[in-house]
Amino acid sequence: MPFMEGISYYNRYTGRVEQEQVLGEKYLQWIYGTASGRLALHALVKRGMFSALMGWWKNRPSSAKGIPAFVEEYGINMEESLKGLGEFKHFNDFFYRRLKAGARPLSGGEETAVFPADARHMGWERADRISGVFVKGQRFDLPALLGDASLAERYAEGAVVLSRLCPTDYHRFHFPVSGIPGRWRRMGGPLASVSPYCLSRSLSWLWTNKRNLTLVQSESWGQVAMLEVGATGVGLIEETYVPEEFAARGAEKGYFAFGGSTVMCFFEPGRIRLASDLLEKTGEGMEMFARQGDMMGKSV
C-alpha cells in the first residue's frame, strides 16, 4: 500500500480544507511505511520503551527550553493559556496547560452535546456501520475497542464520534454532556501512533493501544461511554474528575501527556442527532476540525 501524502481536514471555522502540520512526519513515514521502521515499531514503540523515554525527557526541566520554538513553529495561541511562556516547569507542563476561563465557550444548552477536545472529528450515526475510516476495507471491531461484548451490543446502533488530537492541540479533554461518571476502567496495550498515517495501515491500533473507558449516567442522555486512547509518546492518560460525583457539561475530565491521542464518545440509539457538517464531512472520508465546547449534536 503506498504511504498517504499529507493529512487534509475540513476547518469548521474557515470553511476550507486545510493541511495538517504533522509533528515528526518523516519519522511516522519511516516507522509505519518501511520494513526497517516496522521492526523498530515492534522492538521499541509498541512495547512502550519509546514513550517511557519520551515522557522522562518531556518532564525534565531542561525540556522547557524547547517550548518557545514549538509555539512559534506551530502557531500556538498563548493568549488563551493560564500560564505565560516562561512559567512552565517542563515541556509536559506546557503540553497539558490549562486555558483561561471562557477560552472555550459552550454551545447551546443542556440539549446540546459538545466536542470533548480540540481535535479533528469524525462521526457516524451507527457505531456498527463505521466504514472507510482513513482507508476503505478495514473492519471496525467494536467489542475489542470497548473491551466488553455487552457494551458493544448496547452502543452498536447508536452514534459515535471519534476526536483525534494532534500534538499541537490543547490536550485536556472534557465531558460532552452533564451526568454522573463512574470510575474509569484501564485497558492495557501498546502505544502506537493514532495518526491517519498509521491508522490507514492498521485501524486496530485504536483497540489495542492503552485506553481508559468511563460510563457517564445522564438524566437527559442516558448512558454515554467515553474512551480515551493513548498513542506513541503518550505515557500518561490522567483522569482529573471525581468518580460518582456530578460533572457538568464541558467540565474537565482529564488530560494526555505528550503525544497525539484520541477521545471517542458513544451514545445509545435514539439519543443524539449529530451535527450536519460533521456527518457530511465524515461521509466524504474527511475529518473536521472543531474546538472543545463547540456543538457536536443535539438531543433527540
UniProtKB/TrEMBL annotation:
Give a yes or no for keyword Lyase in this entry: yes
Record keywords, A-Z = Decarboxylase, Lyase, Pyruvate, Zymogen
Protein's name in the database:
Phosphatidylserine decarboxylase proenzyme
Question: Pfam families given for it?
Answer: PS_Dcarbxylase
Q: What lineage does UniProt assign to this protein's organism? A: Bacteria, Pseudomonadati, Verrucomicrobiota, Verrucomicrobiia, Verrucomicrobiales
